[in-house]
Amino acid sequence: MDYQVRDEEVRVLFVEDDPAVAQMYKLKLELDGYVVTVAPDGEAGLRMAREDRPDIVFLDIRLPKMDGFAKDIPVVILSNYSEQELVERGLNLGALEYLIKSETTPAKLSKGVEGWRSEPSEPRRS
Fold this sequence. Notes:
The protein is α/β, with parallel strands linked by helices. It has 4 helices and 6 strands; from the N terminus they run βαβαββαβαβ. The protein has helices at residues 19-31, 42-52, 84-92, 106-118, and strands spanning 11-15, 35-39, 56-59, 76-79, 97-100, 124-125. A 6-stranded parallel sheet has the order 2-1-3-4-5-6, with helices on both faces. α3 links the parallel β4 and β5 (97-100). The relative contact order is 0.17.
């Protein structure tokens, strides 16, 4: 098992409207030692980010109530949509990275957390 013990608690906010997708990534992140909270829509995600101050946010872009582009904190976008216009828009708005769900395993997402937390400068697409 890949379970890792961390010296400090790393809090992750996962904003995803599909409960099965959210649970899959949440499980892997928790097994790797992260504390994960899931928000079911953009409005709840924004509120939770402001209240709980997570260390990193994973954000879908097409969400109920408020889409993932209406944000005011740096995030990693995790989306089904790979259209170049959406990728560019997300990165131009300050996303650390734009990931495509079909290309991003829970393990890849979990492995990236420490890097995204330590390098919040240059946006990129995986």
